[in-house]
């Protein structure tokens, strides 16, 4: 195998594939990236057996061939080469070494047999549809902060993607929850997504997908079956196993009877929460929200740091209420609300609170209160 490729092209692609590769691997071949040189260019492939990425990049191929090389080492080398440099890759099967030459730099990397590199079985995809990059980005960004990191509840370690109805309209809905908070966001249902199975996309896949979306403005082709999901971009294809579990009935935890309505300027409120939370303990991050007509008072105290109080103007005319929240969770939700005003629907100090944007119903957030 012999080819020449521009550094920035190879670095961008290696950045995508090496992040799929786990740093610690008990199976040596999974630490490697597969390199396939063809007449069309270079194809890179990396997998951790649950997630696979294949990306094609332009290159001048002198001699077709294939090998596998250590992903993180190769990425580090290319990253440290000067901008604008040309890289020549040569693989000699006689000594199983990949030679990398660029300017006055020479590197030799040990390779493993390409035959040992595992292929992810594609299988049949029952549904395929196209989503704009903007819609897919919004589905991820508006929900992923609520994904659970608790491995024992593995069925919460991802985003639940499914078709649903909202006010009589078909929508594609993303939901994530960690038991303390819930995020739900929806976009119009794309053509071809009707009747799709509800699937749980793993946290790692969501992260890798978000990186790829950042670099495209094109539509993304989404294919899924009961066990796998595939996202196809211009040059890259990301295929992932789905979480094999049942996502809980999230509709049951979204209150519909909350009658105490608060409307507040999102930025003013978020800034005040951020300031007051400086006093709250690192462990609980608890702050108290006291509501009276026309005013909201935020407070926090801790034995070590002292206390903080701040008043914020707010539209509220129900009976007085005191309720506690985790300030970090509040700030996470405020960061996702794009409009100027946030609306809180509350019942009492012990019941879940529904938070949404005043003029946009596509996103709903549910936050469990804390004792303070």
TrEMBL record:
Q: Which GO terms describe its cellular component?
A: cytoplasm; DNA polymerase III complex
* Primary location group: cytoplasm
InterPro entries named in the record: DNA_clamp_sf, DNA_polIII_beta, DNA_polIII_beta_C, DNA_polIII_beta_cen, DNA_polIII_beta_N
UniProt keyword NADP, yes or no? no
Domain of life of the organism encoding this protein: Bacteria
CDD domains in UniProt:
beta_clamp
Q: Which SUPFAM superfamilies match?
A: DNA clamp
Record keywords: Translocase included? no
Question: DNA polymerase III beta sliding clamp N-terminal domain: which residues?
Answer: 1-120
Which residues are in the DNA polymerase III beta sliding clamp central domain?
Answer: 131-249
A GO BP annotation: DNA strand elongation involved in DNA replication
State the UniProt keywords alphabetically.
Cytoplasm, DNA replication, DNA-binding, DNA-directed DNA polymerase, Nucleotidyltransferase, Transferase
**Stored Pfam families:** DNA_pol3_beta (PF00712), DNA_pol3_beta_2 (PF02767), DNA_pol3_beta_3 (PF02768)
List GO molecular-function terms, semicolon-separated.
3'-5' exonuclease activity; DNA binding; DNA-directed DNA polymerase activity
Q: Where in the cell is it found?
A: Cytoplasm
Residue span(s) of domain DNA polymerase III beta sliding clamp C-terminal: 252-371
The entry's family comment says:
Belongs to the beta sliding clamp family.
Assembly: Forms a ring-shaped head-to-tail homodimer around DNA.
What is the purpose of this protein?
Answer: Confers DNA tethering and processivity to DNA polymerases and other proteins. Acts as a clamp, forming a ring around DNA (a reaction catalyzed by the clamp-loading complex) which diffuses in an ATP-independent manner freely and bidirectionally along dsDNA. Initially characterized for its ability to contact the catalytic subunit of DNA polymerase III (Pol III), a complex, multichain enzyme responsible for most of the replicative synthesis in bacteria; Pol III exhibits 3'-5' exonuclease proofreading activity.
Protein name (Swiss-Prot/TrEMBL) = Beta sliding clamp
């Amino acid at each position: 195998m012999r080819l020449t490729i521009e550094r920035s092209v190879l670095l961008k692609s290696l950045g995508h594939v090496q992040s799929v590769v786990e740093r610690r691997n008990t199976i040596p071949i999974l630490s490697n990236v597969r390199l396939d040189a063809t007449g069309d260019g270079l194809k890179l492939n990396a997998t951790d057996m649950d997630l696979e990425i294949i990306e094609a990049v332009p290159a001048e191929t002198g001699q077709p061939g294939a090998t596998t090389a250590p992903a993180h080492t190769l990425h580090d080398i290319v990253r440290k080469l000067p901008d604008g440099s040309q890289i020549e890759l040569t693989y000699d099967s006689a000594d199983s070494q990949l030679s990398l030459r660029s300017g006055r730099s020479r590197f030799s990397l040990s390779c493993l047999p390409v035959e040992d590199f595992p292929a992810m079985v594609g299988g049949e995809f029952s549904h395929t549809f196209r989503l704009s990059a903007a819609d897919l980005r919004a589905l991820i960004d508006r929900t992923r902060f609520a994904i659970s990191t608790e491995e024992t509840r593995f069925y919460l370690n991802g985003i639940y993607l499914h078709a649903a109805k909202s006010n009589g309209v078909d929508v594609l809905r993303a939901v994530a929850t960690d038991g303390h908070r819930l995020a739900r966001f929806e976009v119009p249902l794309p053509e071809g997504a009707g009747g799709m199975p509800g699937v749980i996309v793993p946290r790692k896949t969501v992260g890798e997908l978000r990186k790829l979306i950042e670099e495209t403005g094109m539509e993304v082709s989404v294919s899924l079956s009961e066990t796998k999901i595939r996202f196809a971009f211009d040059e890259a294809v990301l295929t992932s196993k789905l979480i094999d579990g049942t996502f809980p009935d999230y509709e049951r935890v979204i209150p519909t009877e909350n009658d105490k309505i608060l409307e507040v300027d999102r930025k003013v409120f978020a800034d005040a929460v951020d300031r007051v939370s400086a006093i709250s303990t690192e462990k609980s991050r608890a702050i108290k929200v006291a509501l009276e007509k026309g005013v909201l008072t935020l407070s926090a105290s801790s034995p070590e740091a002292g206390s903080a109080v701040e008043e914020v103007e707010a539209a509220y005319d129900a009976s007085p209420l005191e309720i506690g929240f985790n300030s970090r969770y509040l700030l996470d939700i405020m960061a996702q609300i794009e409009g100027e005003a946030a609306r809180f629907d509350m019942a009492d100090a012990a019941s879940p609170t529904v938070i949404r944007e005043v003029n946009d119903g596509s996103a709903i957030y549910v936050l469990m209160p804390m004792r303070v």
